[in-house]
Each structure stands twice: as C-alpha cells, then as structure tokens.
## 1
Amino acid sequence: MPADFPNSDQPMMHSFKTRHARAVSLIALSALAACGGGDKDTTRITGPGDTTTTTLPIVTPPTTTGPLLGALGLGAVNERFTAEVWTRGTTAYTSTWGTRATARGNAIKIWDVSGAKPILVDSVIVANASTLGDVQVSDDGQLLVVAIESNPNGGLAIYQLDTPTKPRLLVRTVGGDLATGVHTAEVARVNGKLYAFCALDPASGSPAKLAIMDLSNPSAPVQVSTLVIGMPFIHDVFVRDGLLFTAEWNDGVGIWDIGAQGGSPAAPRRLSLTRTVGGQVHNLWWYQDPSNGNKQYVFVGQEGPGSIGSSSQGDIHVLDISSLTAPREVAAYTVAGAGTHNFSVDETNGFLYAAYYNAGVRVLDVRGDLGTCPTTQRFADGRCDLALMGREKSRFTGTGAPVYIWGVHHVGSSLYASDMLSGLWKLQGSAR
C-alpha cells in the first residue's frame, strides 16, 4: 500500500502506502521518490498523500549472498506505480499508488496467475481516489476490501467477488473518520465476525487513528471503535487469536486484547507498548510454528527514509512475546543499502519472505530459537544477528533491470511480489 513514503522522518512506509507514504516515514521518505520505468520517474513523496516532482537516478541494488529465487514471469505495469498484492486461487489483485507521469494511483489491477506469467485481466478504477493502500480478499473469498488513502476522499471500497475477476462494488465509503485517508485496512475475524482494521492518516487538527469497522453487512460498514494512537502515524496491524498488534511508528509495537482475555473490537484493551531499536515501526507478523506450537516471536518491519527506485532503509526486528505484557527485542536482520517493507510468512515451512524495496526480496529461515546465539553472532547491543546466524536462505533481485519491491504474498508453491517500477512478479516460492 503505498504510500509508505513518509515525511521526513518517516519511512517509506508503505510509504508507499501513502501514509505508507507516511509510512515510509513516510519516510522521510520524503525522500522516497518513485522511480520506475525508464531511466527515471518524477514522483517524490514528501508526506502523507503529498507529491511534488523531482528527478531521481536509478541505483544498482546492493549486493547480496545466497541462492536466487527463480523468476517465473512478470506482468508488466508501466503507467502506474504498483503497490500492494493479494492472491487467492488463480487470481491476484494489485493496488496502485501516487502519481506516475499523469496517471493516478486509482486503479486495482486484476490478474490471472494460473500460468507462469501473470496476465492482466481487467482494471477497476476507484472513484475519487488518487492513491490506494491495502487490497485484501476476505477469508471466505467473498469480499475484496481496498483502502483509499486520498485526503479528503479517503475511505474503503468493498467489492463482492461473485466472479473473482469481475469485482462488483458494494460500497465506496465517504465522509467520517476515514475521509482523512485509510493507509492500510487489515481484514480479519474476531470470534467469527468480520472486521476491517483501518489505519487512518493524521490530518490538520486530526491525529492518527485506528478505526475498527464491523463488516457483518459489507454494504454498510459500521465503525465500532476508534483509537487515537501512533506517533506520528499508525501503519499496519496484525490480528490473530483475539489479539491485535499495531505498528505505532515511533511509539513502538502495541499489543491489544480484542477477544482473547475479555477485550473486544468495540473495547480494545492495551496489554503492552514496546519500542524497537530505531523506531519507525511499519508492519508486523505474529509467527505461529505448526511443527512445535511455538508462538513466541513477532517480526517487525522498520521503514526508514528512501527514494523510489534507488534507496531505502530499515531493519527486521524480532520481538519475544513470551510475556504479552513485557515483550523484548532479541534479534534483528539488516541489509546494507536497503530497507524492508512488507512480509509474507510460509508458516508450514518456516520461511519469512520480506519485500526489500531496491534489494528485492529476502527469505529468512525463522523456525527455532532466534534469541540465543554466540557472541560472534550478535550485534554490539547484544541482539542476535539473523544474517550472522545463517538465517538468510534465498533472495530475488530482479532479472537485470532495477526493482523496487513493495509487497509479497506467498501462496502454495509460488511467491508474488509487487514491484513499484515494473508490475507483478510471479516467483518460485521455495527457499530450499
């Protein structure tokens, strides 16, 4: 979801996420300027939803080690910046972000991914939108939910998927809290009921918020609660087993009870707030290992400043949440000259796939003990270094032209990677 490029002290964040943009520090993304296509593009994000024109050079991705992930095919998108990706069955959906040349990020691209190369089937234009964020299909395959980050025309677009390649619009929300811009919208069930957890961009006189929407009647979403959280932004969230994890930027990682221990979506109860090294908390994944039942680690993405197509910053941090009320950071992973953006985890096989902007995709083995290591495999502050531990297992850095990977989605034996510059990659999703 673009827009991750934040303001100057926010990362790219989704910053492409638009707030994402802000996310990125929105980066300070300010520095993030998207560059895709030929030798340059002219969109630079300077704050949530703000764009100015500038020219940025394309820089060669940093060198990496490890076996390559095989590229099966590329579905090219040259007229817009590609943002989020979600795949279900043989259909993939990508959102678009910012402005590229004269094309706004108001299109949802629909792809047939049954073969090696993604084939564009259709494009849906979202009314009164200038940049989109998350795109996600509900767990039952019935709904497609799209975050709209445009300000003052932000909101949600919810589609019925009677036919997966032909989304039918149920509602495009207008007004209310969501109007300042929905940076991300995570769709998840709590005690059987479907909700959208919407990270709202701050606006003049309005702080960052998390709005929780009841989607029991998807044609008429109901806002059941609003949390004023995040300094200066709130980015992604992760919901599982009655717990809500919130990426609250420089405030840290929040853990909330929304159904596990007496809390609810209508009355979330904060359990903890933990600052990670460097702040700029952008995205999260609570890993549950089916091989041994271990649930102690949350992976945290940091989104630092960057420029679209050329640079990025930000590490992956590992929180041990054995105590939900007192999490502690035990490990991290860093790539010189690049920063992470979004994750997708193959929990069955224990691999974390991380979008790494100009460094492509990195694959980490996350099974087992991540917080115990010899002194020679530690950072100076005592945290374990996943790279020195040999946890990096594979990577993808493109097939010659520069990449700027925004998001990843692992499904079955395939990995889908959204490249802001080029479109949608289908990769062989195996790290072994």
## 2
Amino acid sequence: MSDDAAPKKKGWFTRMKEGLTRSSSKLTSGVTDIFTKRKLDDDTLEELEDLLISADLGVATSARICSQLADGRYDKEISPEEVRQVLSDEVTKILGPVAVPLKIDGSRRPHVILMVGVNGTGKTTTIGKLAKQFKADGKSVMLAAGDTFRAAAIEQLKVWGERTSTPVIARDVGADAAGLAFEAVEAAKRDSVDILMIDTAGRLQNKANLMAELEKVLRVIKKVDPDAPHSVLLVLDATTGQNAISQVEAFKDTAQITGLVMTKLDGTARGGILVALTEKFGLPIHAIGVGEGADDLQSFEASAFADALTGSGDLAQI
C-alpha cells in the first residue's frame, strides 16, 4: 500500500474530541433542551446549574458560570450555541492557569518522578506511556516497580520496559517498597540516567498502611537525594467522577503531590471533574489520556479541552 493510500492517523485534538464525546454530548444535548427558543430567566438558569453539577463541574463552578452567563443577558433569548461558547470560555479561564506541561530538570540526574494513585487508575500504564515519550525525546529512562504488593503491576512494568528498551528495577512480590526505591535512585544516579519513574502501591482500602509506606518511600529517596522526588504525580481515573476529589484529599499531604494526570477521559461522561478538581485544589494538570495508545496521553491544553468538553468552537482544522 502506498503512503498516499494509507489511512491518516488522527491528530491528538481530534482524538480528544472523539474521546470526550460522552461528556460533551451530555452537556450539548442538555443545553439545547434548556435553551431552544427560551429566554434566560431563573428557571433556565436553575436547569443549567443542575446540568453542570450533574456533569461533575462542581457546585461552586456551576453557580459562577451561571452568574457569568446571566450578566447582561438576563431576560433575553439566547441560543444554545452562545451558551456553549460562554461555558467554553469560562472553563478555559478556570483551567488555563493549571495547564502546565511536565518539566524535566536537565540538571538532575536523575530527575525522580514518584507516581501515586489508587489501584486501577492506569498508573502503571501511564508510566509506560511517559517512558516511551521521554525516550522519543532522547532522554534516558529507568523504571522502578515499587508496587511490590501486586505481581500484575510488576509484570506490567517489565513489559513496558521491554517495549521501550528501558531498564526496570524490580523485586519479588512482597518486597520492601522503600528498599526498592532506595536501590532504584542509587542505580539511576550511578548510571547518570535522565529520568527515574517509581511506581507505588495504591490500596486505599488500607489507607493508614498505604500512607505510612509512602512516607517511608519518600524518606529513603531523600537519603540518596535530599531534593528528590522532583515530581510527584497523582494519576486519577476520570470515570470515578467526584471520587477523584477524595483521592486527591487522601494523597495530597502525605505524598506532597506536585501535579495531576487524568486518564480514561474517553470512557466517561464525567470529563467535567477536571474543572471541579481545579476549583478545589488548583494543582497543575500535566497530562490527560483519551485512549490506550502511548500517543493518547498528551500535555493538557485548557482551551482545546474546554471546546471539546462543551461541544463549542471548531477543532476540525486541528
């Protein structure tokens, strides 16, 4: 097959827009139902606020967006398209300050990234995807299988290591996670590796033990490098909706989170949870995922996400 005949790979923003279809269709159809040939009055504003809350944008954010929409437009007929554009603009304002690409400090060898999050959020897969991207950028990478409680997590990280030709520090199931982290940082320093990513356990049902273990991992890492970890990324699963807020609460102080990664946005109608998280915590959002492929995890861009979420704007050209 010639190159011309080969199917063209869809761009990231097209894939994101398609991935967010479930989230955007809920908002788009809801806005259309509310505002078709109706004035902006107390009833329509209340219906819109209920719609935004049900889309996981959060109570405070939903109230503020409705207030902004009503300013200068109250008791006037307003089109669904205009409402969606206002929603997009307001979501962009909220998310813009936290759309921060993950920066790797080239003066650190290694730049240590600790990955935390509840089991099932896609944490180990995210590590693999990031490893592939870092390697493509010419960085040397090492992985550490610090979720020593789950054989599947250790094996999954080893598979990603093989796929990306990346060394993996691993021990048997049940090994001491802090000891493994210590060993990994020492090995990465010895080999002058650019980036070390350390996986961790995420058994929130045993929260006290998990947090004690995370504190121990952080302590031993600092014994090798007092400034490490240089990034602590919390991986969240968008399908959990409002539960993502309690997960940030659980990890933010103990793990000293520096940024968020949101996965599985293509599998949910709850994409608005990113807005609620930003309103409550204001943590940097480094990347979002809308699929299984390594290229389906990309840096977070607020305005394109807002357009895709609200069904406004024109992403066709991207």
